[in-house]
Amino acid sequence: MSKTYEYVPEPALVKGNHDFSSITSLITDINLRPTPKGWYLAFAVSNLLLFVMLVSIGYLVWEGTGIWGLNSTVGWGWAIINFVWWVGIGHAGTLISAILFLFRQDWRTAINRFAEAMTIFAVMCAGVFPAIHVGRIWVVYWMFPLPNQMAMWPNFASPLLWDVFAVSTYFTVSFLFWYVGLVPDLATIRDRIKSKTGKFLYGVFSLGWRGSNRHWWNYEKAYMILAGLATPLVLSVHTIVSFDFAVSIIPGWHTTIFPPYFVAGAVFSGFAMVLSLMIICRKIYKLEDIMTVDHIEKMNIILMVTGTMVGFAYLMEFFMAWYSGVEYEKAIFMLRATGPYAWAYWIMIACNVISPQFFWSKKLRRNVTFTFIISIIVNIGMWFERFVITVTSLSTDYMPSSWAYYSPTIWDALTYIGTFGLFFTFFLLFLRFLPMVAVAELKGVMPQADPHNYDEETGEYTPHEVIVPEPKNESV
Amino acid sequence: MNSAASNKSLYGMLAEFRNPKELVDAARIVNKNGFKKYDTFSPYPIHGMDKAMSLKKSKLGWIVLVHGLLGFSGALLMISFMMVFDYPLNISGKTLFNVPAWIPVTFELTVLLSAFGAVFGMFFLNGLPKLNHPLFSSENFKKATNDGFFVCVESTDPLFDSEKVHKLLEEAGAANIEKIYDEI
C-alpha cells in the first residue's frame, strides 16, 4: 500500500532567513533611521486635512448644526454615519489583538500592533462626531455623570448614554492593551537608540522594562486577561452602537438582528481598512517578510466570511419585514431598494455582498493589488450601509406628509474628509516613532523561540521535523 | 568587571547564554541549587520557563477580580443613586429600579475597572515603573531586549558566593559572565 497522504505544514509566519536580531533591526530601524522625505510630505497633507477638520468644527460651533444638511425629517445625517463607520473600522484591531489571540492564531502577531493603532485612531475620529453633533458643544459634559448647575444626572436608560460609556471604555481599554504590548518593544528601542532625547523618552515610556521572566510571567497573564476582557467589550460596543438605532421605534431600525449584524459589519469594514493600510505599509517599509501573502489570504477569508454574513443580514431584514406583517416595515424595505435612495442601496449591495465573493478564488485571494482594490471598495460599501440605514428610515417614515429628501452640504463633506487628516496625522506619527510590528510577540512565535527546537546535545538550533509514518498494511 | 568598584556594592552575577534552550537549562540548574533571588531575562516570554524557575501562579487574577467586582457594584450603586434616590427620573411610568436598562453601563464599567486592575496590577506586581536598575549599567545587557538570554543571580541570596556562582554558571554553559554593581 503506498502513501496516499502527505504532511502539509503551516506556512512559516516569518518568511526569509531571519533570526532574532535581524527581526529587531528590520522593525525598529524604521524608528531609528532619519525621517524619510516622503513621510514629511504625507504628514503635511494629513496636517492640511486635520486643519480642514478643525476649521469645519470651528464653524460648526460658531454657527450651529444648521450648516449641515439636516432637516426636520432627517435629524441624523453624516455625523452619525461617520461615527458608526469609524467605530466599526476600529473593531478589526481588537478582533485581531484579542479574539485571534484567544484562538491562538499566531499569524496575528504580524499585524496586531498595526491594527490596534488603527483602532485607537479610528475611535478618536469616531469620538469627534458625537461630541460635536450635540449642538451646544459647551455643555457637552452633560453627557457624563458629573454634577452640574441643573442638579440633574444623565438618563442611564438611554442608549445614547450607553454609547458614551461603551465608546469611552472601548477607547481606554484598547489604549491600555496597546500600551501593554508596546512596553517591551519600547525597551528594545531604548536599548538601541543613540540620541539622548530618544533614550530619555523611550526610557520613560518603557517604564524600566528589562525582559525579566518573572515580569513576563505576570505580563502574559495580564495580556491574556486583557484579551479576555476586550473580546466581550468589542462585541458589546457595536451592539450598543446598534442599540442607538434598534431601541427606537423607527421602521427599519427596530429589529433584533441589529447587534450581530452591526458587529459582523464592523469586523468586515475593519479588516478591509487594515488590509488597505497594511498593503501600502509593507511595500513602503519593506516588511513583506513579516506581513506575507499568507496573512493577506487569511484576512481575505475573514473578509469573505463577514461580507457574506452581512449579505445574509440584508436578506434576513427583508424577510423579517415581510414576515412581521407590519406595513411600515414592509414599506421601508421596499423603499430602500426602489425608493429615492435606491442608488445608495445598490452601491451598498454591490460593494458589500458581491465584491467579497471574488475571494472564493485562491488566486484572487493571494493577489495583492486585487485585494487592495476590494478593500477600498468594501470601505466605501460599509459607509453606504450606514448611510442607507440612517437616512432611508428617517426620510420616509410613518407619515408621507413629512417625507423629505436629505442631501449633505459642503460642511458635512469637509468634516468627514477632515477626520482622515486626524487619523493619518496620528497614524504617521505612530509609523515614525513606534515599532509597527509587535517585535517581542513576533519573536515568540518564531521557530527559534521554542526551546524544544534546539538539539539536546550540542544546543544548536535544529528545526523540528515531522515524520509521517508509512501506512500499516492491514488485511481486511 | 569594574576594578574601581570599591564604593559600590555587588548586586549580582550576570551570565549570558546563547539561546532559549540553554537559558531554560541554566535556570533549572540555578533553581535546583537552591537559589531564590535570581532572574532570567529574554527578549520574549519563553515557554516552559515558569516550570524551570518554579514560578508560583501569578496573583494577577485576584487583583482583576477585585477590581471587576468594584466596577460592577460601583456602577450599580452610582446608577441607583442618580436614577432612584438623588433625582428620581420617571421614564414612561416604568419602575425606578429599571435594572435591565442599566446592564450596558454596568457591564462597561466592570470591564473598565477590570482592565485597570489587569494593567496597573501587572505593573505593580512587577515593581514597574522603575527609573533605574543595576543591570542597566551593563552594556552587554542591552541585548536582553534584542537577542540576548541572561541569568542574574543576586548577591542578596543567602547562598550567594561569587566564586561558586561563577563556577555554576560557567558549567551551565554561560558565554559571558560579569559582576554587576549597585551604584550607591
Summary, kept brief:
The complex is a heterodimer of chains A (476) and B (184). Chain A has 476 residues and is an all-alpha fold.
Structure overview:
The complex is a heterodimer of chains A (476) and B (184). Chain A is mostly helical and 476 residues long. Chain A has one domain (20-144, 151-453): Formate dehydrogenase/DMSO reductase fold (Up-down Bundle). Helix content of chain A is 65%, strand content 0%. Chain A contains 15 helices and no strands. In chain A, helix 5 packs antiparallel against helix 7 (213-246), helix 8 packs antiparallel against helix 9 and helix 10 crosses helix 11. The model of chain A has no long low-confidence stretch (mean pLDDT 89). Chain B is built from 5 helices and 4 strands, in the order E-H-E-H-H-H-E-H-E. With 184 residues, chain B is of the alpha+beta class. Chain B has 2 domains: 9-56 and 133-182, Alpha-Beta Plaits, CATH 3.30.70; 60-125, no CATH class. Chains A and B meet through helix 1, helix 5, helix 7 and helix 15 of A and helix 1, strand 2, helix 3 and helix 4 of B.
Task: Note the topology.
The complex is a heterodimer of chains A (476) and B (184).
Chain A: H1 20-32, H2 37-63, H3 78-102, H4 112-132, H5 159-192, H6 196-205, H7 213-246, H8 258-284, H9 293-324, H10 327-338, H11 342-354, H12 362-365, H13 368-395, H14 410-433, H15 439-444
Chain B: E1 9-17, H1 20-32, E2 38-41, H2 49-52, H3 60-86, H4 99-125, E3 149-154, H5 162-171, E4 176-182
Helix pairs in contact in B: 3-4
